[in-house]
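REVIEWER CHECKLIST
Item 1: Sequence provided? yes
Item 2: Single chain? yes
Item 3: Sequence as submitted:
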Amino acid sequence: MSETFFAAYDALLARWPAGTAELTVSTPYGPTRVHAYGPPDGPPLVLLHGGGATGTAWFANAPALGARHRVYAVDILGDVGRSERAGLPLRTPRDLTAWLDAVLDGLGLSAAALCGHSYGGWVAAAYALHAPRRVPRLALLDPTQVFGGYRPGYLLRVLPMLLRPTARRVGAYLDRETAGTGVDEDFKRLYVLGATLRGRGRPVVGRTLDPTPLAMPVLALFAGDSRVHDAGAMADRARRLLPRARVEVLPGLGHHVLPTAGAAAVDAIVLEFLGAPTAEGHPPR
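Item 4: Structure as written out by the authors:
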């Protein structure tokens, strides 16, 4: 990957709080980069970023989430970032869940709350279906392909960018999708550079999930101005499929900027969800 991309990556990482640790976790599928912040003895919280965003994208959320939790923001293997494919091939959703098993093992975590945004929400939900005993709580931020598919119009807009990504085309796409919702310029630069990297691999993707078997506490938080899908319809479907889940829509926020532009609101809701009493009457540890 290019030096320019990693310079942008490091610029976003520099906005993480002092004391952030850079970890490299060995897995059978390749070394995985993890940004860790917060009290080492705090309840573990694994953050999974949206497609093309890298683990650095949680810079705005790390201070608040890391005040109570040991935060582990992972560069998802197969996407852009400092994780590297090596060893076993990573091709299917089953491979992806096995990789995340190895990441948790490498971090010494028998269980951890998961919080995923967009594509990371799909990865988090897929993993929770795969290993429910390892996921005591699941927070999904405007997840894709969990409670329904994409808007057809969105697919028509994004397809040219995916087929022939150029800096101009990707930048115009992100500007259009985030218009009026406060996209961060450092994030935008990294996203554009990552999308146009030569030789970039494609993340592992799969079908829309059936979330109905999820029995752990679930938070589904949707961006009211998302153009990826109809937030109201997704929220209604989430309530039908998971009647015990906490489901909310945050107005005025777009899909790509939900964790950053909406950091204060998102962090407050996520922290309240993670700290809520369990069925036994005690907050999760």
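Item 5: Key structural point noted by reviewer: Strands lie at 21-25, 32-37, 44-48, 70-74, 113-117, 138-141, 218-223, 246-250.
Item 6: Recommendation: ____
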